[in-house]
Write a structure and sequence with these properties.
The protein is mainly α. Among the domains are: about 90 residues, Orthogonal Bundle (Fertility Inhibition Protein O, Chain: A, Domain 1), CATH 1.10.1710; about 80 residues, no CATH class. The chain is about 60% helix and about 5% strand. The chain has six helices and two strands. It has a two-stranded antiparallel sheet with strand order 1-2.
Length: about 250
């Protein structure tokens, strides 16, 4: 169905709500089951309206979740005509069929909500990726502009030196020049260190100090031993103790 057809069907549905507010109410909770064969009544009462548009508008109305809930839970199981008068009843088979359609509609709604959520997440990821790429491009452009500005400054400085008769050297040339100057300074220091012994006398060392004389040893008086007192000699006799032997018990 094209967008134009959808707009026309919606216009017919609004016309039905204006002509028959009791059976096509604007309030979602006031929807009631319609009588069987209500399409024929609509075609007869609205001859100026395209029958195809009437059929599509009625199909959209009866496929709404509110209408299916009215078939399942409406009080008295009654159906109503265009003026809101009760005509006929809802059979158990029709109620079971409405329940199946409601479950299918709920599943479709959940699947649609999941698709919408996934689509929003992907769009958010794409938006963040585009934002990151934009920032990277801006940073790259800024670095490029800074490099170009620096190169222009270097070129202007080089041109100014050449205008003064000074040869501008590149970074590699300056590096080689500094290496040569460092090597020349090292050679001069080495040659100056080798020529120093031939032209300059070594400094004389001061005389070593005289060591102090050792202290004089103080003589100690001779050690005198006291003589032992003389007396009679005493002879000491050692006796060996005998080990007692227990009596033999077998002798009895």
């Amino acid at each position: 169905m094209s967008r134009r057809d959808k707009r026309e069907v919606n216009d017919v549905h609004r016309l039905l709500m204006e002509r028959y507010p009791k059976t096509f109410p604007k309030n979602y909770d006031l929807i009631v089951p319609l009588k069987t064969g209500v399409l024929a009544d609509l075609t007869q009462r609205l001859p100026d309206v395209n029958p195809t548009l009437l059929r599509r508008a009625l199909a959209n109305h009866t496929a709404r979740d509110g209408y299916l809930l009215a078939l399942i839970h409406h009080r008295g199981d009654r159906r109503y005509d265009l003026e809101g008068h009760p005509v006929g009843t809802v059979t158990p088979q029709e109620r079971a069929e409405a329940l199946k359609k409601l479950d299918a509609s709920t599943a479709r709604g959940q699947a649609k909500a999941e698709r919408v959520r996934t689509h929003k997440e992907r769009e958010e990821q794409r938006r963040q990726q585009r934002e990151t790429e934009r920032k990277n491009r801006e940073a790259k452009a800024a670095r490029k502009a800074a490099h170009e500005l620096k190169m222009r400054e270097v070129a202007a400085h080089k041109a100014a030196l050449e205008a003064q008769g000074i040869k501008a050297e590149s970074r590699s040339e300056r590096k080689r020049r500094l290496i040569r100057e460092a090597a020349a300074r090292a050679d001069r220091r080495a040659s100056a260190g080798q020529a120093a012994p031939a032209t300059t006398a070594p400094p004389s060392r001061p005389p070593a100090p005289t060591p102090p004389s050792p202290p004089t040893a103080t003589p100690y008086p001779p050690l005198r031993l006291k003589p032992k007192a003389e007396g009679p000699s005493v002879t000491v006799e050692f006796k060996k103790r005998r080990r007692p032997v227990p009596p033999d018990s077998t002798s009895d």
